[in-house]
Amino acid sequence: MHAPALSDRSIEAYADTVEAEQLDRLRSFAEELEDDRILHVNSTATGGGVAELLRSIVPLCNDLGVDTDWLVLDADDEFFAVTKSIHNGLQGDDAPLTDPMKATYRSVTERNAAEVDDEYDLVVLHDPQPLGMIDRLRERLPDAPIVWRCHIDLTDPSPDHLAFVTEYASRVDHAIASRSDYAGVIDVPTRVVHPSIDPLSEKNRSLDEATVSSERDRLYPLSFDAPLVAQVSRFDPWKDQFGTLAAFRRARDEIPGLQLALAGAMAGDDPEALEVYERVAKDAAGEPHVHVLTDLPDTTINALQRGADVVVQKSLREGFGLVVSEALWKRTPVVGSTVGGIPLQIEDGRTGHLVDPDDAQAAGARVVDLLDDDDRRRTFGANGREHVRDRFLLPRQIADLFDVLLDVLDRDR
């Protein structure tokens, strides 16, 4: 296990971004947790949405006076191949899960659990990767409740994969899901906490004109003087970059000079990412207006999302899909699919458009509708910014998390 390096953060910096009532609620909950020590555990410090959230949440918890640590599993590619199979199976894929794979999972998680030697009052395990630590953690911290934070789309899980995960998840004290449709899949008390974006992170903060200009230069030969559609996602089969390519080709027939940027990261715990990237790049080869980009700095992603005319998120499964809120926060309308948390973020016909996940032609048509109407795009963008401000910014998420943790700790409130 290892602890990622973190920058100092101050909750006071959010005073100009969120309502005072949200910050007051957050500080009130933090005061009730000031004598507790919390541990978060996940599988990677880079490239994934969970790592991105924890990189903001953990230092802000400490700034609020809640003693919080973050540890990341030490594991190899063999383990991550197993956990990616589990991830895919929970999202409905008939991925293999053999006895040797289960043995690898148990060996790595138990070894990591044995390395937890500090005292904690509560432990939060994120997603399936660290769930196998539960028995060792129970022995080491018998009085500390264990919470499972599931960020995965559990709409239609494979029975075999669900049974394997349930073997561990059914023994946690509480679970947190990203939306109500996922609650109840595991038979433990479950609360819903919607994820959020950090408006002050490098990916989401305001950019001055000089920074925007230099970041756009970095993206050359992509042009911001011609119509531009973008998708920002990990290279993962569930993100459906191929469907976005099909939607782009449909829209290109009506929008001359249309460009597409497919920007994605390589998550540290996803051995499938490089293969997906190579397949996407091969599909786009020979199309000069399609740009397949990987591992861009967060500031460059920020500039791309701001400069795009429309963002597409046509996922087939989606735990939540915070890239939607990232784009809306930057006043860029989004065409997204009706899966996971995407419909919670897109108000259809007000901040963007929703389409069926398998309907690339409809996605392309909605892109054309937005590109053909500058006033609609601007109105959707303004509406999207306010929708995210009200519902999907970081202080609200931390307050909701604290509320759950206080209940799990059974505090008299």
TrEMBL record:
GO terms, molecular function: glycosyltransferase activity
InterPro entries to which the protein is assigned, alphabetical: Glyco_trans_1, Trehalose_Metab_GTase, TreT_GT1
One annotated GO biological process: glucose metabolic process
Domain Trehalose synthase N-terminal, chain residue ranges per copy: 40-183
Hydrolase found in the keyword field: no
Keywords: Carbohydrate metabolism, Glucose metabolism, Glycosyltransferase, Transferase
Presence of the UniProt keyword Glycosyltransferase in the record: yes
Matches recorded under Pfam families: Glycos_transf_1, TreT_GT1
Domain Glycosyl transferase family: 226-386
Family that this chain belongs to: Belongs to the glycosyltransferase group 1 family. Glycosyltransferase 4 subfamily.
Binding partners and assembly: Homodimer.
Protein name: Glycosyltransferase
Species this chain originates from: Natronoarchaeum mannanilyticum
